[in-house]
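Usage

Read records sequentially. Each one opens with the input sequence:
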Amino acid sequence: MTERSSKNKIRVLVADDSALMRKLIPHILSKDPDIEVVATAVDGLFALKKIGVFKPDIITLDVDMPRMDGLTALKHIVAEYKIPVIMVSSLTDAGAELTFKALEIGAMDFIAKPHDAISVHIGDIADDLIRKIKAIAKVSPGRLLTAPRPSPPLQKIPRKLGRIANKVVAIGISTGGPNALTYFLPMLPADISAGILIVQHMPAGFTEVFAARLNNICQIEVKEARDGDMVTPGRAIIAPGGRHIKVKKTNLGSVVIVSHTAPVNGHRPSVDVLFNSVAVEYGHDAVGVLMTGMGEDGAEGLGQIKAVGGLTIAQDEASCVVYGMPKAAIERSYVDRVASLNDMAGVITEAVSKGSGQLTVNSEKQNC
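and closes with the structure output:
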């Protein structure tokens, strides 16, 4: 690939109070010919001062910094500069909570800060960061949609024990996913007649906090997957970071299988792993949904669901933060129906309300 001229490179500002990270991140990014680190900053205040001078296309922003922390700086960046931001977060429960607050404010994505700079995981983090910078450098934070969060948390309607999910909705999602799920999952009714399985590309240590946050605002139950979890109507199960999930039917109902097998499509969890198992176990009683995210994970799995008679849905380009995963499936003619984020809950609810084996597409409603 021909290296871009300096003026055409993606310009990055790195804000982190750690001197080591201010060296490590530019070193990581220097390996890509299309990216240039134009400045670094030791805290949020210096970052704001340097934006006007260096005019970055994207900012990597540490969550926890002195003088002005990442969340405070992020509010200014989103409101005044409208520059996409990737948060750099610590692998702790507190770090995860702050990260999801940052995503609600308007951060586009995040990476997990390694425990030490010589960790064997540095290469994985480097590749992930470069992919994310290239995917979202030109995306406006205004594409993120968030829903109001009730306080106190919603009271759940008690679910009947032992109910079996005869239908399943499998959702694959990546960049922009936390905000998209936070926006539409609360719109699903508590009595939805299907089990819900979700693969959100996210590192280990974050999905449990994310599931708990969703559970507080949704009418349905939301939890991080544990091996052997039952798939039941009105329950959404999210793949743990760093683990695949599959579904398997048994005499007692469907259960979730959690595994640490090799990454697929460069991802663990992988959407394709989930979708392929859903196609085998549920056939025409499956609904596959592919939403905002970079890359092609889930496209072939969605094709498998379509091939066995299940209904396949993709999020539309206008409401995606990154139109990668849905686009890959649409281009391969694997999608029955295209829906906006605003319409997604209604489309899913309508689809699973039909009788067993009737999850067919209405040709007059292919575009919502």
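Summary fields computed downstream for this record:
- Residues 8-143 form a domain with the Rossmann fold fold (CATH 3.40.50.2300).
- Residues 221 and 235 are 5 Å apart (CA to CA).
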